Amino acid sequence: MISPTMQNALNTQINLEQYSAQLYLAMGAHCETLSFKGFAHWLRVQAGEETAHAVKLIDFLLDRKGKLELKPIAAPPQEFGGVIQVFEQTLAHEMGITQKINALFDLSRTEKDYASEITLQWYVSEQVEEESNVGQVVDHLHAVGDQGGGIWYLDSRMAKRMAKA
Ligand code: OFO
């Protein structure tokens, strides 16, 4: 069994992961309209990963005999600016998610919910990877700027991102 407090917090996090998927689908569509198909592809793959993060938490909740309470997913913005701004916003979003995961991890310790703590360890590590990957993209974008050939080269590299197995 899982405590009502932890169940509620996990349901909230599931909604946030679903929102992340929505956000990246919207950002990907925005990049597509700017003809940056590589950045659009990268964000589409990221949206798939966010859905997988939500499903992993759903499976955990159900394994603990918790109740899944899906909530409405907030609408993402529709305007994001240039590609550099898109990825700066992506990094800011991931940093916010890291704080949410850390707070959940804290809660699992307060509640002495060891199963949740172990599951959430995966998310703590995943956030390190997410921030590192997106931070690298932001650095590269700042290095090449949004004019000239560099950004198109980056776009072609972003097109190579594979979905996680
Ligand atoms: Fe689920 O890691 Fe990004 O948001």
Key descriptive features of the protein:
165 residues; mainly alpha; Ferritin; binds hydroxy diiron-OXO moiety
Q: Roughly how many Å apart are the termini?
A: 30 Å
CATH class identity? Mainly Alpha
- Please identify the structural class as seen in this structure: mainly alpha
Unreliable stretches, pLDDT < 50, 5 or more residues?
Answer: none
What percent of residues are in strands? under 5%
Number of strands: 0
Order of helices and strands: HHHHH
What is the helix content? over 70%
Bound molecules: hydroxy diiron-OXO moiety
Q: Compute the average pLDDT.
A: 96
CATH fold node name: Ferritin
Walk me through this protein's architecture.
The chain has a single domain (4-158), classed as Ferritin, core subunit, four-helix bundle (Ferritin), CATH 1.20.1260. The chain contains five helices and no strands. It has helices spanning 4-33, 37-63, 83-110, 114-144, 149-158. The model has no long low-confidence stretch (mean pLDDT 96). The site of hydroxy diiron-OXO moiety has 8 residues, from helix 1, helix 2, helix 3 and helix 4.
Produce the secondary structure layout.
Elements: H1 4-33, H2 37-63, H3 83-110, H4 114-144, H5 149-158
Helix pairs in contact: 1-2, 1-3, 2-5, 3-4
Hydroxy diiron-OXO moiety is lined by residues 17, 20, 50, 53, 94, 97, 126, 130.
In short:
With 165 residues, the chain is mainly α. The protein has helices at 4-33, 37-63, 83-110, 114-144, 149-158.
